[in-house]
Specification:
By secondary structure, the chain is mainly alpha-helical. It has a domain of about 120 residues. It has six helices and no strands. The chain starts with about 20 loop residues before the first helix and ends with a helix.
Length: about 190
């Protein structure tokens, strides 16, 4: 049953609920009624669930692309961090040798090599967290049904970044602690 309070020439959009399980029969009855009421215009229809699916298809594709680019960015960042820590360990070979001769343990040497990188990583996290909070907040404003942004997610991301960076750096630092102090102190 449908009611209209204006001329049918102003009618351009209707929302109709079809009986579940009887969609083809309902569409056929709707086409018949449409031709009787408004024979000048053809019936064009689409389903709301398909419209919603089309709306979110672009976001789903973007999510997939962002996932792969994020993995690629993390790999490139780890390679750069590994190269930088390798260069730093080679540059500080004499210092490592002196520390070992003076009785420093492997943990102390690893901490000394990792300290400068850890400070830079913490600074970058402090800069990145507010920016990412703003960007994610603006992205979520597009949707009528939003999820709440939990601070635990940002803490987890920061912890993961520190963990990945420290694993990358400590591998090189651990390798540097294995050098013979006599070899490290040789004049080149």
């Amino acid at each position: 049953m449908a009611f209209t309070f204006s001329d049918t020439s102003f009618l351009y959009l209707m929302l109709i609920r079809l009986t579940p399980g009887k969609v083809p029969e309902s569409l056929h009855a709707l086409e018949k009624t449409w031709k009787n009421v408004i024979p000048d215009y053809p019936l064009e229809y689409n389903f709301i669930d398909q419209d919603y699916d089309n709306l979110y298809r672009a976001e789903n594709r973007l999510t997939g692309l962002l996932k792969y680019f994020t993995i690629l960015a993390v790999i490139i960042a780890c390679l750069g961090l590994y190269g930088l820590s390798s260069y730093s360990a080679d540059r500080r070979t004499n210092e490592i040798g002196i520390r070992k001769v003076m009785g420093a343990g492997s943990g102390n040497v690893i901490f000394a090599l990792s300290k400068e990188f850890l400070l830079l990583i913490l600074i970058s996290i402090i800069i990145a967290l507010p920016i990412s909070y703003i960007i994610v907040g603006n992205f979520l404003k597009q949707y009528s049904n939003r999820i709440a942004m939990s601070p635990l997610v940002f803490v987890g991301i920061a912890g993961g970044a520190i963990l990945i960076a420290m694993l990358t750096i400590s591998f090189q630092a651990f390798k540097a602690t294995g050098i013979n102090p006599a070899e490290a102190l040789k004049v080149k």
